[in-house]
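Regression test attached.
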Amino acid sequence: MDKRLVGKRVLVTQSKDYMGPATVELFREHGAYVLADESDLRESSAASAVVDKVGDIDILVANLAAPANLGTMAHDIDEDVWFTMFDVMVHPLHRLFRAVLPQMYKRREGKIVVYGSATGIKGLEGVAAYSSARAAQIGYIRSVGREAARYNVQINLIAQNFVENEDYFSTEFQETSYFKEIMEKDVPIGRLATAREDALFALFLASNESDFFVGQAIAFSGGWAQ
Amino acid sequence: MDKRLVGKRVLVTQSKDYMGPATVELFREHGAYVLADESDLRESSAASAVVDKVGDIDILVANLAAPANLGTMAHDIDEDVWFTMFDVMVHPLHRLFRAVLPQMYKRREGKIVVYGSATGIKGLEGVAAYSSARAAQIGYIRSVGREAARYNVQINLIAQNFVENEDYFSTEFQETSYFKEIMEKDVPIGRLATAREDALFALFLASNESDFFVGQAIAFSGGWAQ
Amino acid sequence: MDKRLVGKRVLVTQSKDYMGPATVELFREHGAYVLADESDLRESSAASAVVDKVGDIDILVANLAAPANLGTMAHDIDEDVWFTMFDVMVHPLHRLFRAVLPQMYKRREGKIVVYGSATGIKGLEGVAAYSSARAAQIGYIRSVGREAARYNVQINLIAQNFVENEDYFSTEFQETSYFKEIMEKDVPIGRLATAREDALFALFLASNESDFFVGQAIAFSGGWAQ
Amino acid sequence: MDKRLVGKRVLVTQSKDYMGPATVELFREHGAYVLADESDLRESSAASAVVDKVGDIDILVANLAAPANLGTMAHDIDEDVWFTMFDVMVHPLHRLFRAVLPQMYKRREGKIVVYGSATGIKGLEGVAAYSSARAAQIGYIRSVGREAARYNVQINLIAQNFVENEDYFSTEFQETSYFKEIMEKDVPIGRLATAREDALFALFLASNESDFFVGQAIAFSGGWAQ
């Protein structure tokens, strides 16, 4: 097996959540030195503290996830749920970028991969707050991605949906007829992705095989969003 | 002249800023009863207070604007600038929606027009925080717009750029060679839109001539974004 | 009633088909002098012959429609169906543009509105040939639209779906449970647009109220595509 | 080195043109058995003849290229240039798909990678015919890609621009100040991609590391299109 991240220091945030475990595992298989961070990043100084602690990194995997609160109509989304979305997924993203970009710009090399959501590029009922925060991530990386390209730092985002994870697609939910109908009608590929498949895409975006990608939010959703 | 908003009660927020004045003027010419609100909506109870005060409205024009802080690299955007974007343009949007949607859903009729930004759909360097907040608006209305359609309430967003306004395009800035080069190279139409032209698009989206538009962010940028 | 096209000479192609009748009617109500052409435009000289005959026009409504052949898998689409799509919807579009743009550029004024399809911006199974031809229209107007903007000629396209017309949504089809399920699941607004609603959007794009729109393909589909 | 295409039979069309040589070389390094075809595919029976000759294939790389004819205004594009675009890039695509999809559907496995263009997703002046044909490819694969997903066949397209190749970016052109200005202003990454970088993306889309991608046109343009 070839190892595509040999000698790379990689920071993975929320490493126990969402796409964290699969990413840590796959990236280690590929020779990366993975710094798996489990901090809660909502605290304003948390992001910079993590980066200070780990020092120089070649690759940041911004894995930020909050519950999607599926099925709540927008006008019923209360302040608490609303702010959690931004506090967990949006503000820490900027703080992480603030902390890692200067060192990457200085070395003129670096990669950032963001695990985001296809709900940030395609409308879906019942997830207004979540979609809004995920779209904020995309608007952000499209802009910063262009700035970073000039320093040979590539920033891209996986706009995913229908990837196996207990938070959004519990085993229980997968057994409902509602879920089966979604798979049949809305997801051309007719199945969930495994977390490992998703991590393989992150690997591509983190490796030097994707140096020409700049500030892109790329759908990973089995055809739900194209 | 035909009047396309006769009998309509319209709430325009931040009525002295951004697209407020042009909107108030044009909508009044079209027979609307315009409630021009000048409140600062950053306070968490401000949005609902405004809606409580004005009572039932047929049309909400969500005109929310903060300085774009053009030209700051993302890693130099401090917490203060960052949060201002969301405090002014994103959180009040949700609060306004929370306040007006129930009455619109009950009557099964209503329109919301959001003055947003094309930087929410197309990457631009030097405006990462602004772009992120504007993208958050778009992710939000794409989701809520779908929910609202089922209640005969239409929500759409003007993804604008290059519209005359003193905040973003001062007379001084318009005289720089930098501005002229942008017009020549990046804006096919080669000029700024007038605020009135923009308000005419808002009028279309607010009138019953656009009942089939659902949760759309439509570019209004002279060809910069298409 | 205000008339928004007074003094305008408008050419509407395939005037008896698709959106032709509703457009001719509405545009005439708005004071336009409408040249309703019924020619088959597949013949290579047909487009220029029509424009030669009518002389100067202010507005071209490119209404080009072929059967969608809904439900045929791509590998079963034969040469005949395939070429019909391009012969009816794509090649005549270019020929019409070749015929009208020089006069519009000379006068530095003009509008072109293309009735296109949302299948050109969003994937849909069973309509590969049709989608391909409709996407070709969109790729075309995005490019030409930018060129034309410099001459004060605005070219835009209505990326529609779910608009009443006997060809694509026969009364019979509308009564099937399949159709009703589509309306319920895939079309947030839950109904077809009337042809008149669609023509109202064309009116907006043909009038001087939309001078800042450049080469855009705008969804008109009740939320199916956003 | 790991080999990601061991045991795969790959057909690469126009193997001496555009991205052909780099693809053939890289895919062979990865263990593929590459059938490098040089046929002119404009003839209506050419595509099926090629597929008949090579028999079963696991992967089709649809590499179809015609001169972009950069810099011609739309109304000056003659019939000959116009039809060449569709005859070279669009009609053969459908014929190739017709020829290979049945065998892939039967085996319930297969990959198709199309080398397309970012001008099919983003407007650019002076390339209307080329853009139209490239957009036609995209509209096509978005539709067929969804159909094919149900048979475990993945079809995706590289929407590229600014990739080294003598046809579009000759050494001579690269030395002009016009080219240098484009790199500086319009391409955030500030350089052309090598053909090998592009082939690496094709490798990703051709390998089993991208099984969850369905009918997508993904920008590969150094940030020009995002």
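Expected vs. actual: identical. Residues 9-220 of chain A form a domain with the Rossmann fold fold (CATH 3.40.50.720).
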